[in-house]
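Bug #2210: token dump truncated for Ribosome biogenesis protein NSA2 homolog?
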Amino acid sequence: MDRENTTRAKVLSNTIKQKKERESWKMGGPYTQGEKMFFLCYVRPVAEDEMFKVIRSGKRKTKQWKRMVTKCTFVGLGFTRKPPKYERFIRPSGLRFTKAHVTHPELKCTFNLDIIGVKKNPNGPMYTSLGVMTKGTIIEVNASELGLVMPAGNVVWGKYAQVTNNPESDGCINAVLLV
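Reproduced locally. Full output below:
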């Protein structure tokens, strides 16, 4: 009798573990900040063909080492382009964003905040370093306008937020503040 109960418990725990694994795969894996884990939206993997467009150069159009980013990007305030001859990744100025519509989950209010940087893109570290923003990307926003204060009395300047829309199709960046 006891043996049957233990097998049922094992089967139940295994099914729960498998369900959690499937959910974490769907969400693009957990993003951890301290001990918190965030699974806010479904993250579809983006292929390189979809992310970049090959730029052919040279007199006979035989050189194919340049790539143009076709997704929305963030570049810092002091960003200057390299000379065109040495630039491997071209980030078009029409697809650059500096602000995001960030919703505070507890206050249920949306604020238009400045983006400080891209912290993690679920598609890979190369997209993070390029500043590409797709659905599920963790960005850092300037939260000084929100008036958040730490227990010590310090004002919070930067806060993390996760992008919840496809910016290239909507024309703006919507995100949820990670509290």
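Output looks complete on our side. The helical segments are 2-26, 48-51, 125-130, 167-170. Marking as cannot-reproduce; reopen if the truncation happens again.
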